[in-house]
């Protein structure tokens, strides 16, 4: 479901209302595949998702809080149920009525969104650092083997 694509830029504190998230589905290049049933743009926005779709992934969405990417939607999928299935502890799912977001809710959601973002970035940096260290180890082993061979030949 997730990919390494970059979504539309989102500013901190943005997209906490259903209307703001719904607006992302109304962009000129948007071709959301479902107009009726449980998987409409409105239901997606109510479940905390905003649109990130591309020509290659026309049903790609991301949660405003947990930043979980999802695509591969089917007309009968319920966005809130799918969100809960994939990220049961998402802070957005604790909101009972997405139309009644308080300032306190926004501050709490923003804090959770930032914590999630930091954790994702940390994991990515750890992967990159591990790969870098492994590459350096290989280079050192190769250099040591070369030095040993050169020492034996002299």
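-> sequence recovered:
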């Amino acid at each position: 479901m997730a990919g390494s694509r970059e979504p539309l830029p989102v500013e901190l504190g943005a997209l906490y209302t259903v209307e703001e998230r719904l607006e992302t589905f109304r962009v000129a290049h948007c071709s959301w595949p479902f107009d009726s049933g449980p998987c409409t743009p409105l239901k997606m926005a109510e479940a905390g998702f905003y649109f990130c779709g591309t020509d290659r992934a026309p049903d790609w969405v991301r949660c405003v809080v947990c930043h979980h990417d999802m695509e591969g939607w089917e007309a009968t999928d319920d966005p809130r149920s799918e969100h809960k299935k994939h990220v049961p502890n998402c802070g957005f799912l604790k909101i009972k009525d997405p139309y009644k977001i308080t300032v306190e809710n926004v501050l709490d959601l923003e804090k959770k969104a930032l914590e999630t973002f930091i954790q994702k970035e940390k994991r990515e940096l750890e992967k990159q650092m591990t790969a870098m260290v492994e590459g350096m180890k290989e280079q050192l082993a190769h250099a040591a083997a070369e030095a040993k061979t050169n020492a034996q030949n002299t």
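The chain is about 45% helix and 5% strand.
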